[in-house]
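Appendix C reproduces, verbatim, an entry submitted by the partner laboratory led by Prof. M.T., so that reviewers can inspect both the input and the predicted structure.
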Amino acid sequence: MSDTCTATEFPYLHGFSATEQVRLMKQARLAESTVFRNVDYADARRLLEVGSGVGAQTEILLRRFPDLHVTCVDLNGQQVEAARRNLGAMPWFDGRYALQQADATDLPFEPRSFDAAFLCWVLEHVPTPARVLSEVRRVLMPGAPVYITEVMNASFLLDPYSPNVWRYWMAFNDFQIESGGDPFVGAKLGNLLLAGGFRDVSTEIKTFHFDNREPARRKTMIAFWEELLLSAAEQLVAAGKVTPEVVDGVRDEMRQVQNDPNAVFFYSFVQARATVY
């Protein structure tokens, strides 16, 4: 999915173009009702958002939880500046957030600086997620809640069957693994949090499942998924993972599926909640 936070610089699958930054804003709003269902920061006041990217999730956090002040960190300076522009266009949030370029494996904060944390589409891009979680735990107060939302890319299904999309999706995941990321990290969140010393660990499987019951939302999601996939096309072709013909095939198949009266889109991801003690 991706809002970006990488612990070290390595090829980022989606890039940092203006088009990609717009896509991240669209993605956050499209997924908001699913991602934020059961997320509760009612008792929090000082939240750390790791991998804040362009500020897409930050805007939702500030809007949904009016008592929060959010400190945002991201490794990439372009993303931090994009967040500054995006949030700066919302003057009603002035004074409620801070933006900082920082390495998630070496956070520039004192212990117990925050009483909550939020990570969304972050650990999939991090070579050492355990180090990130260790740093997050270090800077949180006892009792602080943490919500982590992550991909589980083995869950993707598109019907009718689309061979170019499937071939591209396998290459997409392979490239992420070879670049130091993990497209299946959502399934591992429970183990990572327990090993990192967090308590009260729970996970919830959240799903986008669209068929003839919601044809308009299905069409919107399939169109968005095409954007998400093709945001990596340039890098995948340059790395020799797919051919330009496969990319063209993806475009054709996604549009065919989008217009199919019986299409099915299915994708699940994992949200973990834990507490610091």
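Strands lie at 46-50, 69-74, 97-101, 116-120, 145-151, 157-159, 199-210, 264-275. Additional entries are available on request from the coordinating office.
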